[in-house]
Design a protein that fits this description.
The chain is α+β, with helices and mostly antiparallel strands. The chain is built from 7 helices and 11 strands.
């Protein structure tokens, strides 16, 4: 584990609270979110339930051995009236409520799948196993993809039923011929994978006022 905290990343501390608590704050701050499924490791179900508290919008289920199987577990826990599904990563725990709202609205506007993204600022090189540069793609056509990724429920369920290998959920939708559209991401939705990322997130938290957290224990 690159964070080196000896626990699942979602429960690593950030300013005195687990990443998951911060993530819930952003998700539940979006008025359009009616149901949240926390997919947690079996070893940390009690901690996840404690963070969920008594909020009737939140269900906690056991995750799988990898990311894909955990998403499948989340899909199995959807309620009958859940028509739009957002897949989020607790490592992007500072994603603001506005980002969730914009993803949902974009799906409602007639899209199979929506991914938030930021422009790539570095020059990107395609290299082979020996480190030889094969190509330099035009960075104007490149985007760094974030979460939450949003989908029509039936589209995401069909994508997972296909069992096609992919690095993210949008990639699965692409593999079955679904259309994926990119919208503007948010600098707060950075992915925390290292102690340096935690330091950046701490600095961002100190600069950005956070909404009331009384529903997150």
């Amino acid at each position: 584990m690159r964070l080196g905290v000896g626990m699942p990343k979602a429960f690593a501390p950030l300013c005195g609270e687990p990443l998951l608590a911060h993530a819930l704050r952003g998700v539940l701050g979006c008025a359009d979110v009616a149901h949240v499924i926390i997919v947690a490791p079996g070893s940390h179900l009690d901690q996840a339930r404690d963070l969920a508290g008594q909020d009737p919008r939140i269900d906690v289920v056991t995750g799988g051995a990898d990311r894909s199987s955990s998403v499948v577990a989340g899909l199995a826990a959807l309620r009958p009236d859940d028509g739009i599904v957002l897949v989020h990563d607790a490592a992007r725990c500072l994603a603001p409520a506005d980002l969730f709202a914009r993803v949902i609205q974009a799906v409602r506007s007639g899209n199979d799948a929506i991914v938030p993204a930021l422009p790539v600022t570095d020059t990107i090189k395609v290299v082979d196993a020996a480190g030889l540069v094969l190509a330099t793609p035009d960075r104007e056509t490149l985007r760094g993809i974030q979460t939450p990724q949003g989908f029509l429920r039936d589209v995401l369920e069909r994508a997972y039923a296909s069992r096609t290998p992919a690095t993210d959920d949008a990639g699965l939708v692409e593999s079955i011929g679904g259309h994926v559209r990119v919208i503007d991401g948010d600098r707060l939705a950075l992915k925390i994978t290292s102690p340096a990322d935690l330091a950046v997130a701490t600095s961002l938290l100190q600069d950005v006022p956070m909404p009331d957290s009384s529903h997150v224990r």
